[in-house]
Amino acid sequence: MAKKKATKKATKKATAKKATAKKATKRKPNAAFMRALTPSAALAEVIGTKAVPRTEVVKKLWAYIRKNDLQDKKNRRNINADAKLKPVFGGKAQVSMFEMTKLVSKHLK
């Protein structure tokens, strides 16, 4: 029994060392995501005309979707387009959240 307790303590110390080693190296954000991009006229109606990074575009788009209750009631992965989002979604009435980011990237320069 004494051996089992000793090995448990040793493994706890080893995992604690690994956790502190991971915390010490902080991830650096990718410069491509942080570069400000200009939205097209169709996308600017939804998020505004100011040039913003891609991450902010997605945040603002989701804020608009939640504000206007555009997520499908049965399948929350799908987004129903309103009059402003239809041109951004390429004329589609409904897109999945994964397809949305692909379609929005076409409206950024």
Summarize the structure.
The protein has helices spanning 2-24, 31-34, 41-47, 54-67, 97-105, and strands at 36-37, 52-53, 78-80, 94-96. It is mostly helical and 109 residues long. The strands form two sheets. Strands 1-2 form a two-stranded antiparallel sheet. The chain has a two-stranded antiparallel ribbon with strand order 3-4.
Secondary structure layout plus pairing:
Blueprint: H1 2-24, H2 31-34, E1 36-37, H3 41-47, E2 52-53, H4 54-67, E3 78-80, E4 94-96, H5 97-105
Antiparallel strand pairs: 1-2, 3-4
Output the strand order for the largest sheet.
1-2
What is the CA-based Rg, rounded?
A: 22 Å
Mean pLDDT: 86
**Major sheet description:** 2 strands, antiparallel
- Number of helical regions: 5
Question: Hey, roughly how much beta strand do the residues contain?
Answer: 5-15%
- Find the count of extended strands (DSSP E, 2+ residues): 4
Low-pLDDT residue intervals, each spanning 5 or more residues: none
Taking the alpha carbons of the first and last residues, their distance comes to: 66 Å
Order of helices and strands: HHEHEHEEH
Which class best fits the helix and strand makeup?
mainly alpha
Could you say which overall geometry the principal axes of the C-alpha atoms support?
Answer: elongated
What is the share of helical residues? 40-55%
